[in-house]
Amino acid sequence: MSRRFSWFNATSLTLGFVFLYLPILILVAYSFNQSKLVTVWAGFSTKWYGELFQNQAFMDAAIVTLKVAVVSSTIATILGTMAAYVLVRLGRFKGRTLFSGMIYAPLVVPDVIVGLSLLLLFISLGMGRGVTTIVLAHATFSMCYVSVVVSSRLVSFDQSLEEAALDLGCTPWDAFRSVTLPIIAPAVISGWLLAFTLSLDDLVIASFVSGPSATTLPMKIFSQVRLGLSPEINALSTIMIAIVTVGVVSSSLLNKRATVRRLRQEQDALKQS
Amino acid sequence: MNLPAEQTGDFIPWEDADAKPIIRFQGVTKKFGDFTAIDNLSLDIYEREFFALLGPSGCGKTTLMRMLAGFETPTSGEIMLDGQNIAPVPPNKRPVNMMFQSYALFPHLTLADNIAFGLKRSDMPKSEIAGRVDEMLSLVQLSKFGSRKPHQISGGQRQRVALARALAKSPKLLLLDEPLAALDKKLREETQFELMDIQEKLGTTFVIVTHDQEEAMTVASRVAVMDHGQLVQVATPEQIYEFPNSRYVADFIGDVNLIEGAAKSVTKDAAVISWAEGLPDINAAAPEGLAKGDNCCFAIRPEKVSISAEKPTDAANALPGKVLDIGYLGNMSTYHVELGNGQIIKAQVANQRRLSRRAYTWDDQVWVSFTATAGLVLSA
């Protein structure tokens, strides 16, 4: 493969990145616009950020969103990890194919249908719609993502580690807690982060299952945008982008540093032996 | 050769009718669906033994070991440990520890924490654990490495940590599942002797599973040769090698020449085996129960076959043939001699002089000879 510079490669790379990031860059730039008109540049200002924090409706929505995201991703992580463990460890039990198919199905079922069916379920159960129903809905659809992430780690997990723990005196639960969980922890954490992001991001399902008492940030932004663009929303979106960027970059840096350190230590061990 | 039976003097509890076995399998059968992994097997293992389960893959030796550890339960039959039926006892409640083939060291714990793992879950007081860990680390000569993680040490060191961890709780019985399979040949041979030293020092009963017959012969006080879920022969390494009870064992352990024939005449202690038209009959010692006319098999190890250019006058058996192939192994050479009927006899000659000129070469006419007691007549 040629690694040399060519105009074709450079152009396609540039176009690709422009396509992906130009809209975001424009949004970030206009969040610092002094003018109230979103499309007219009138000089640099951070006043919209200040106003954003004064806006009680936005702050309430942000708190609801964070609450929902933390609780639902935690539930999804516990359930998803359990499901992955059963699917990978129990071998062939009756109905395994059905079970594994059903756990991955929500990945491809359209959000609208998931939202609608959950709404019908909550109505028929007589549940009042609010934060609880959003949490349940988010936990339901994000647990399949968690179980995909965790089961891919469990497949490469040496089962004799668990047997060794049992052999050394652990009960099955103790073996899971003190051996399996610490080893698969990175996968569980990234599953949690994925579920958290999905919950933060979701508009469709939340719109179906929420009631008047609970509005999430994406719902709030969407309803505001229908009334017209405001620089405050640009500021809010920029903050969300910043949070996500910092999270993704720092987690990948941590990961890379751990890998590099481990490789170096392994080489040292080889040299000594 | 440094055989354990010689080291331990007269350690032969299996011949003592009063000795109580530490492990007793009684009519144990294990089925996985339609597949019978262990077929109605009975076996006694005694305290302080270094017992080897030997066989090809799929013979049931690993299943037998996993039943001792508690990871499999027998379909029928009883497994007694110290007189107690252990079938219903879960692995974490058994005074048995296992060293895994993959070593199964916990990657997130230091070596010291790996060794302390089982101790923390025993009734050992906390204050004594650190001392015990140091003791185990020095037993396997890794005292300086306690704070390292498993990925920071070499494969040979990992193997020793796995051994230390399995021995830390002073189990009544230590199980070793192919413990040396991942090491290179030289390290493996060194480690075999280390294992024997440790076993002798601690006096723990060891049961080792291996498919490597040399390893089993070197370390074990007794070897059980298995095939298709059954024990074919259980005996000391010397007996297994010199007195195999069947073609299967003779062929599985070491190199052997097998000559199929029939008993032409049988007296109290001698048999004459006719095996090929136009070639001299074989004179051999008669085994018990061999009758005239029985089909049988004459088995002889290559190192017990001599090779000469002239017909030896004093040998009980001498067969003419032609050198087909010569294998030079360094310490010895193996000659493949083709007899008149196409049967190939392997003869091993020690290379006692450096670079001595070979007395025979390809296509030379030679005689292979052996005494009447050098080989064994097998009817099974």
CATH class of the largest domain in chain B: Alpha Beta
Largest β-sheet summary of chain A: none
**Residue runs with pLDDT of under 50 for 5 or more positions of chain B:** 1-8
CATH class (first level) name of the domain at 49-235 in chain A: Mainly Alpha
Average pLDDT figure of chain B: 91
**Spatial gap, N to C terminus of chain A:** 37 Å
Low-confidence regions of chain A: none
Going by CATH, what is the homologous superfamily of the largest domain in chain B?
P-loop containing nucleotide triphosphate hydrolases
Coarse morphology of chain A: globular
Within the CATH hierarchy, at the fold level, what is the topology of the largest domain in chain B?
Answer: Rossmann fold
Helical proportion of chain B? Answer: 10-25%
Secondary structure category of chain A: mainly alpha
Helix content of chain A: over 70%
Strand content of chain B: 25-35%
Oligomer: heterodimer
Instruction: Tell me the number of helical segments of chain A per DSSP (H or I, 4 or more residues long).
Output: 11
Verbal overview:
- The complex is a heterodimer of chains A (273) and B (380).
- Chain A is mostly helical.
- Chain A has a domain at 49-235: MetI-like (MetI-like fold, Orthogonal Bundle), CATH 1.10.3720.
- Chain A contains 11 helices and no strands.
- The longest helix of chain A has 42 residues, at 231-272.
- In chain A, 29% of the residues are buried.
- Chain B has 380 residues and is α+β, with helices and mostly antiparallel strands.
- In chain B, helix 3 packs across helix 4 (126-139) and helix 3 (111-120) runs parallel beside helix 5 (155-167).
- In chain B, 23% of the residues lie in helices and 32% in strands.
- The two termini of chain B are 29 Å apart.
- Chain B is built from 9 helices and 20 strands.
- Chain A binds chain B through residues 158, 160-161, 163-171, 174, 178-179, 182-183, 262, 265-266, 268-270, 272-273, and chain B through 69-71, 90-92, 96-98, 100-102, 104, 106-108, 117-118, 121-122, 149, 151-157, 165-166, 169.
